[in-house]
Amino acid sequence: MAPYIATTSAPVNIACIKYWGKRDTKLILPTNSSLSVTLDQDHLRSTTTSRADSAFEKDRLWLNGVEEDIKPGGRMSTCIAEMKRLRKELVEDVDASAPALSTFAVHIASYNNFPTAAGLASSASGFAALTASLAALYALPCPPTALSLIARQGSGSACRSLYGGFVAWNAGTLPSGLDSHAVQVAPETHWPDIHALICVVSDTKKGTSSTSGMQRTVETSSLLQHRIKNVVPQRMKDISAAILARDFDRFAEITMADSNQFHAVALDTSPPIFYMNDVSRAIIAVVEEYNRVALLPENGGKRKAAYTYDAGPNAVIYAPAANMKEIISMIVRYFPQQDAFKDPFGLFGAAGAGTGALVSGFNADVAKIWEAGAVKGLIHTRVGGGPRVLSSEESLLGENGLPSKTA
Amino acid sequence: MAPYIATTSAPVNIACIKYWGKRDTKLILPTNSSLSVTLDQDHLRSTTTSRADSAFEKDRLWLNGVEEDIKPGGRMSTCIAEMKRLRKELVEDVDASAPALSTFAVHIASYNNFPTAAGLASSASGFAALTASLAALYALPCPPTALSLIARQGSGSACRSLYGGFVAWNAGTLPSGLDSHAVQVAPETHWPDIHALICVVSDTKKGTSSTSGMQRTVETSSLLQHRIKNVVPQRMKDISAAILARDFDRFAEITMADSNQFHAVALDTSPPIFYMNDVSRAIIAVVEEYNRVALLPENGGKRKAAYTYDAGPNAVIYAPAANMKEIISMIVRYFPQQDAFKDPFGLFGAAGAGTGALVSGFNADVAKIWEAGAVKGLIHTRVGGGPRVLSSEESLLGENGLPSKTA
């Protein structure tokens, strides 16, 4: 008999309206709604294989080839238990012929195709891939929204990686969290023109983890409550409308304002939390200058790029595809690259991105030219789809039920 | 006949509750009240000599030996005109024998004893010294509160330099601004134990001027209004109570929170405004760690230092005098000094501050050791008194009515 096994991949997402603060730390219920863009799995993804077997002694999980401890009552344990519960309730209890997979232990192997050193949060794509692979293994008749309730309990922002395109995480109001799930605002096919440039920024300082940092903000910031009650609800409506209208200028305005406000409430925390450093600030100065030029009436009067920063110094710059060559040239000029720019969309041809260039009218003095390595890598990607079920050829578990691939 | 001439000096002040935003840009009426500590003129001061003479053709002003243009309707012009008006109304109109100095032109020479390169705002001490010297010249029977109404129209925070000690600037509510003036919360003699260490931080980036920056925050920050209405009023009460009770722990807690919140609303501005850089952040990390150790029950459970940052990267660290040696040792350890520490209070003796040291239990990893020059100077001072009238020997104008000293 073929083993009960499934492999899926899930995407990274980067928020435009930021999640910062939990009203329930166990269920991971947020203090405000958030909204993100799902990035293309062709470039960044977590892949997870799950296998259920009556011969397995206990649930085990390997991350990038290294076994992780599944702590009882911890986040991974909760997700696996919830998926087994759904298997029992939605499949086994209604179809007596279905194998009792919910009673079997599982082995799970997960890989990220981006290095941890890239500073990209892997918990969102990781928990989304875990949830999606167990859903495939268990043949659950669940829409992504239902699965997002479980991924959320692994890592809040993971719930948004269950959908492609433009995804809202509604904060909800129920103590149970049953209304705190992801919904798709628009699929990637609605606005495939949205590209992203991830600028991986070197940092010597170890940052505050988002889990502890956000609760310190909840406890000590006098500005956060105002943000939650009076700012985010309107921004969620406004950016959803901008996405539906494919209005990049408005999308960019809100995205940048919300990134800055998230970092403002982090700074309004005691002790204060800083995620951006001087390189991050310089990228902001450069993008703001690029938009200042773009906003001139003779240049069309609309913003052409939007930066956003999560809980770290890396920038993600969203822009319509047509602007990406200018943006990459600009970034490369101020932040010389040690390695040649990997050009997945073939913007630069054989000559490569070179030493960069600025658009006409740009005030070059808004930032200095940094030493090579200040931005240690650039990843060009775009909006993409939700989790994918992969063929058995891509399985990460061997016939012996152990990882077939090491990190 | 002796010339009509007066020389005064005025102090620098550094706010604990920050002024950021005007409700009237012409009268310089703030959106919120603020509170500062006046620093000792023995270390930092502006000195101004004013002379009225019927032979002078027009009002003239020299700053550090360089003549400045007194623009009609500008801030200096407004202050001089207001002082002449007070001379007429309060002196000449009530005493017919008083010389009609209000009809004479004035020559004014002003010097700062700290270099512009130190990055310390000289506008507060400068306009306070201007106002105080004209008040002495005109023999105005005015308390500092009345003079503060005029200094405020030169530079908002100048109104707080008319008093020594701990000084509030009440925002007021009248459109005329007549209730927007400084009041002394407590004189320097109430709590002379408060010392200050100014850490002059190198910065490659030219910052946004506070005049333009604060109005951009008023126009674009969604958090500022909450700060104005719901945060600052309570903090003004709380820090005043802490000062009256000489409660440094509470004073420090509020001072640091308000510095961080000021920079948070600057960041919540579009485009965002950054005044602190990576060195500023590192100083915060070091002071926070120093307080973390101090807050341990076995160490007394109270904060021992408070950082605050104005519209620039420089830190000012307030602390009781007894902690200053530890603090200077700590700062010197992380930020090696190119020049020997000037030790005005003789804390270190002949050996000097050396290469620094940390208190027991301090986690040294909270910051890296920076290259010499990252903090390019340290100034140790303390709370001090209000403007002083100086003798004619300290006059900055020669007998010919022109500056006797060049920069």
TrEMBL record, chains A, B:
Entry EC no(s): 4.1.1.33
Classification via InterPro entries: GHMP_kinase_C_sf, Mev_decarb, Mev_diP_decarb, MVD-like_N, Mvd1_C, Ribosomal_Su5_D2-typ_SF, Ribsml_uS5_D2-typ_fold_subgr
Family note: Belongs to the diphosphomevalonate decarboxylase family.
Species of origin: Mycena belliarum
Residues annotated as domain Diphosphomevalonate decarboxylase-like N-terminal: 10-181
PANTHER family assigned: DIPHOSPHOMEVALONATE DECARBOXYLASE
GO MF annotations in UniProt: ATP binding; diphosphomevalonate decarboxylase activity; kinase activity
Domain of life: Eukaryota
Official protein name in the record: Diphosphomevalonate decarboxylase
UniProt xrefs under Gene3D superfamilies: 3.30.230.10, GHMP kinase, C-terminal domain
Pathway named in the protein's UniProt entry: Isoprenoid biosynthesis; isopentenyl diphosphate biosynthesis via mevalonate pathway; isopentenyl diphosphate from (R)-mevalonate: step 3/3
GO biological process: isopentenyl diphosphate biosynthetic process, mevalonate pathway; sterol biosynthetic process
SUPFAM superfamilies, per database record: GHMP Kinase, C-terminal domain, Ribosomal protein S5 domain 2-like
One GO location term (cellular component): cytosol
Keywords attached to this entry: ATP-binding, Kinase, Lipid biosynthesis, Lipid metabolism, Lyase, Nucleotide-binding, Steroid biosynthesis, Steroid metabolism, Sterol biosynthesis, Sterol metabolism, Transferase
Residues annotated as domain Mvd1 C-terminal: 196-390
Family annotation (Pfam families): MDD_C (PF18376), MVD-like_N (PF22700)
Residue runs in coiled coils: none
Catalytic reaction list: (R)-5-diphosphomevalonate + ATP = isopentenyl diphosphate + ADP + phosphate + CO2
